[in-house]
Amino acid sequence: MLNQRVSSAKFIEIKNLSKRFNSNWIIKNLSLTINEGEIVVVQGPSGIGKSTLLRCLTYLTPFEKGYIRVGSLQLEAGMDDRKHHGTILGVRQQLGFVFQSFNLFPHLSVIDNLTIGPIKVLGQTRERARKRAMALLRRIGLKHKADEYPMALSGGQQQRVAIGRALALRPKGILFDEPTSNLDPVMKGEIVDVMEDFAQDGLTMIIVTHEPAVIERMAARIVEFGPHCSIVSERILPKLLFNTPESPKENGILPELDRAAMAQAETAKA
Amino acid sequence: MSRIKLSLITIAGLGLFGLPSHANEAWNRVIQTGELRWGADSAGGAPYVFPDERDPSKMIGFEAELMNAIAAKLDVKAKLVDVAWDQLVPALMRDNFDMAFNGLEITETRLREIAFTDPYYIFSEQITVRKGDGRFHKFKDLRGHRVGTMSASLARLLMEQDGKIEIVDYPGPVEIYKDLEVGRIDAAFIDVPMAVFYAGPNPKLENVSEPVGESVYAAGIRKDSPLLLLKINEAIKELVQSGEIKKIYQKWNLWDKRQEKLKNPEKLESLKHSAPISVWQYFPFLLKGAGVTILISSLSMALAMILGFALCAAKLYGHRPLRFLANAYIELIRGTPLLIQLYLIYYGLPNIGIEINAFAAAVMGIGLNYAAYEAEIYRAGLLAVPKGQDEAARSIGMTGRQSLFHIVLPQAFRTIIPPSTNDFIALFKDSSLVSIITVVELTKMYSQAATASLRFLELGLMTAALYFAMSYPLAVWSRHLERKRQYA
Ligand SMILES: Nc1ncnc2c1ncn2[C@@H]1O[C@H](COP(=O)(O)OP(=O)(O)OP(=O)(O)O)[C@@H](O)[C@H]1O
Ligand SMILES: [Mg+2]
Question: How far apart, in whole angstroms, are the C-alpha atoms of residue B311 and residue B302?
Answer without folding.
Answer: 14
